[in-house]
Design goal:
Largest sheet: 4 strands, antiparallel
Structural class: mainly alpha
Strand order of the largest sheet: 1-2-3-4
Strand content: under 5%
Radius of gyration: 30 Å
């Protein structure tokens, strides 16, 4: 993993603002950092010691065995390790070199061992590690040419008996079961690449069928079983490429899966099987799919199957006709159609579909899909139709008075040269919302305050804030104005510290430390550093029982 694989922005995006901020307070708790090719591991001392694994391939991934991390989230412990690695590239280089040296030493030692010594080591590992024994058993069966034994081992891996409690796979057992499914997928590939493709196809289909039954009684909130299931499906495709099974039989299997209960747990895209099906198989599947849709014309699975087949055949007009049978009232389906037409180079038709969707959605009861508004307005702007783009943005803002809509209106009005006339009525609508108590759908608080801050109009924001701003908005306003209005910002920060001192928790302590740094900056700007010293001493004395907080303040020089 190189430093350039990810940035601070990537970490913020994956973690979200809350986990990112909390992770800052845990950087000093990171220990045991190790770096090898493509992977970084470390432990983080939280409520317990947690193990974090970072992997950066095409994108940054991380796992942590804390409760929040096990649910699939990029938790504060992941943030702490990722930031530590990002900010210490020299240390990582050294760790990689040390890991490479250890590998060389190990290989040299192993190469020098005799056959009996190696056998003894291997038997010792087999006795200690059931997973290792299982993997070698599969290899032995493959080497022996016993496809029947390999298929039986694959079926045993999919069997949830060893991972289920009380008849279902609990959250804490999901990762272990997912690892078994992944090993089954690897074994299927091994079968296919050693000349037993037909057996691999049979084993893969049996495994997929068994897995879909298991999925009904598994807690896969972390998504790991789903990821392993997708790997199993890819192994099935690889086996089909190696074996080239009968195209009609493959079409029938795909139909059964896509229209059966299993599709709810493992979605298979028939278009991915184009090469395997060939012209004959695709024709068979299209015929079977059309018959199924005739029997159940409103079925979503049948519709999705036919859409996939239209894509596979490159029949864009059929695909659009299928979309058009079920147009969503908010315009989302029109946006999908526009995207399909754009990808085919039919931009004029795409815009007409999007305009039609905007018209129909505006007349309906549901809010217009934001992506559709963006699409139409952006196309108008691209073609120099700034007045039309402004009209679209203005109508959307009036219907959805969010910060996003306000920003988009501002951008369109500036491009048209009319922001000075558009801004006053837009702010008046937001003031009316604030006076009537309407708040933003996400995050609360009045959009008026956020809009004024975003406009870089802090004086107006300070005037509008009393009685309207939420705590988070007060903090945003203080951060925006601390350099020009340090006394006002100081009052906000002091209130925020007082509120947070009522609670415990390392994440809360990190926020207190951040606020204290800002309070110190405000006092310095006001020429009252001694007041900060007195305030800090009193706070430390008052909070002395919170040892983690005091240790954090010591580390931060507060």
């Amino acid at each position: 993993m190189h430093r350039s694989c990810y940035t601070d922005a990537h970490i913020r995006e994956l973690a979200g603002p809350r986990s990112y901020k909390r992770g800052l307070g845990y950087m000093d708790a990171v220990s045991g950092l190790r770096a090898e090719a493509g992977r970084i591991t470390a432990t983080v001392q939280g409520t317990e010691r947690y193990r974090v694994i970072l992997d950066a391939g095409d994108r940054l991934r991380a796992t942590c065995d804390c409760p929040y991390g096990e649910d699939g989230h990029f938790c504060k412990h992941c943030v702490a390790v990722a930031l530590t690695a990002l900010r210490e590239p020299g240390r990582l280089t050294t760790l990689r070199e040390e890991a490479a040296a250890r590998d060389t030493t190990l290989r040299t030692w192993l190469d020098g061992l005799g056959r009996d010594e190696l056998r003894a080591l291997l038997h010792e590992r087999l006795a200690e590690d059931p997973d290792f024994k299982e993997a070698l058993s599969l290899r032995a069966a493959l080497a022996d040419g016993d496809a029947t034994a390999v298929c039986a081992d694959i079926a045993a891996l999919i069997d949830p008996a060893d991972c289920s409690q009380y008849g279902y796979i609990a959250h804490e057992d999901a990762h272990g079961y997912a690892a078994r499914v992944t090993r089954a997928a690897d074994a299927i590939r091994d079968l296919a690449t050693t000349g037993r493709g037909a057996a691999a196809v049979i084993a893969a289909r049996a495994a997929i069928g068994r897995l879909t039954g298991v999925y009904e009684s598994a807690d896969d909130s972390a998504g790991c079983i789903g990821d392993a299931a997708a790997e199993l499906e890819r192994a099935h495709r690889d086996a089909c490429v190696a074996a080239l099974p009968d195209p009609d039989e493959t079409a029938e299997w795909l139909l059964d899966h896509c229209l059966g209960d299993g599709a709810a747990y493992l979605e298979i895209e028939p278009a991915d099987y184009r090469r395997i099906l060939g012209v004959q198989g695709l024709a068979t599947l299209r015929t079977l799919g059309a018959e199924a849709r005739k029997r159940n014309p409103t079925g979503r699975a049948e519709k999705h199957l036919m859409e996939s087949l239209a894509r596979a055949a490159g029949d864009l007009d059929e695909l659009i006709a299928l979309h058009a049978t079920d147009l969503h009232p908010n315009g989302h389906t029109h946006l999908q159609i526009a995207g399909e037409l754009d990808a085919a180079g039919r931009a004029d038709e795409a815009l007409r579909w999007a305009e039609r969707g905007l018209h129909h959605a505006a007349a309906g009861a549901e809010p217009v899909h934001r992506g559709l508004v963006d699409y139409v307005a952006d196309r108008y702007a691209h073609h120099g139709r700034t007045a039309d783009a402004l009209t679209v943005r203005r109508d959307h803002f009036r219907a959805d008075r969010s910060l996003h809509a306000y920003r988009a209106l501002r951008t369109a009005a500036r491009a048209h040269g009319s922001w000075d006339t558009e801004r006053p009525p837009a702010l008046e609508l937001l003031r009316t919302d604030a006076e009537e108590g309407r708040t933003a759908r996400w995050g609360g608080g009045t959009v008026l305050i956020d809009a004024l801050i975003d406009d870089d109009d802090p004086d107006a924001a300070w005037t509008a804030a009393p009685g309207r701003a939420r705590p988070a908005q007060w903090l945003r306003l203080a951060d925006h104005s601390a350099a020009t209005r340090p006394a006002d910002a100081l009052a906000v920060y002091l209130r925020a510290v007082e509120e947070r001192c009522r609670y415990t928790g390392d994440g809360n302590y990190a926020e207190i430390a951040d606020l204290l740094s800002k309070i110190r900056t405000c006092h310095e700007a006001l020429g009252t550093p001694d007041d900060f010293t007195t305030y800090l001493a009193a706070l430390r004395a008052e909070q002395k029982r919170k040892r983690n907080l005091i240790r954090l303040l010591d580390r931060r020089g507060l």
